[in-house]
Amino acid sequence: MAAVSEQLAPLPMHELWSKDFELMHHYCTVTADTLSIRREMRHVWRVVIPREGYQHPFVMHGILAIAATHKAYLVPNSRKKYLALSDYHQTVGSEGFRSTLSNVCVESQGALFCFASVVVLFMFTLPTRSATGRLENPVINLLELIGLLKGMRATQSPVLPGILKSEFAPIIYGIWPIEQTGPPAGQAEIPSASLKPYIGAIDRLEETAKLISCAGVHAEAGAVLAWMYGVDDSVLIDIGAYRPHALLTLAYYSLFLATLEKSFWYSRGWGRQLIDQIETKLAGQSKFLQLFQWPKQKLTDLYRW
Fold it and tell me: How many domains does the chain have?
């Protein structure tokens, strides 16, 4: 593992050590407090997760990857250098994560959860890490993100009950939303099987709106990410096929992504780019374009604040 990481290193090892100290300092003094709003969650990011990194190098690589991405965001003139460090640490950390995942034990459960939590945020930074800040295909990129999030969630499901009783618990409610028990409200009254997934998706959008409304300025990313974890695969297939009713659903969800941008740097770039592509894909479909105007206008209003 050490030989492989040395081969992948973007800098000579003695320079890399120096940069790693810089990144760790930046993470503990700056980045950790930007990942959440609530104090108990910030404590987990700043204290608990780095402590896991002492014993599990792949966790430390995950921490350094998100710190390097943050530095790239904050220091545009050094963006290329920090993104190279970010890619390196994410690659090496992911290799260690996969290796540990193949032989899970009680001692490694917390570390696996920590790395998975960091990776969720890292994956969310795709617009920030893109060469021009522009996504190649925002709709498809979001579907890829959702697929990765669902896969990561599946790997963590067996350990979540134990994590709920540990010092990591605040993070679960921040980026690992607990699944609903039972069907979304109103779904049982819809007889058509083809409509049920959309009723569920819209019900989840309403739940997201309620969560954000209740939290106000203290809304965490998990309130918005919950929709990604719960949306039915058939809706995702329709989105990937650019079906207008699916794109309209996604347009409303884009509003929630945009609400995160004022609080969380790692979420920036998704809302506007999704709305722009959706409008292009709906060209010539007057009925859907008319319905699209409301989320488009609301998103424009958000960016004026």
Answer: 2
Do residues 263 and 222 touch, judged by C-beta distance below 8 A? Answer: no
Residue 221 belongs to domain spanning: 177-304
Residue pLDDT, tens place only, 102-133: 887 878 888 999 999 999 899 999 999 998 88
pLDDT digits (tens, 9 = 90+) for 152-201: 888 877 777 778 788 888 877 665 554 444 444 333 333 355 788 999 99
What are the residue ranges of helices labelled H in the chain?
Answer: 2-8, 13-29, 39-43, 49-55, 57-74, 79-101, 106-124, 126-129, 138-156, 160-163, 169-175, 196-215, 221-230, 233-240, 244-260, 270-281, 286-304
Asked whether residue 24 falls in the same domain as residue 134, the answer is yes
Q: Cα separation of 26 and 28, whole Å?
A: 6
| Tokens matching residue 259 | 């609400």
Q: How far apart are CA 24 and CA 13, in angstroms?
A: 16
pLDDT digits (tens, 9 = 90+) for 15-63: 788 899 999 999 999 999 999 998 999 999 999 999 999 999 999 999 9
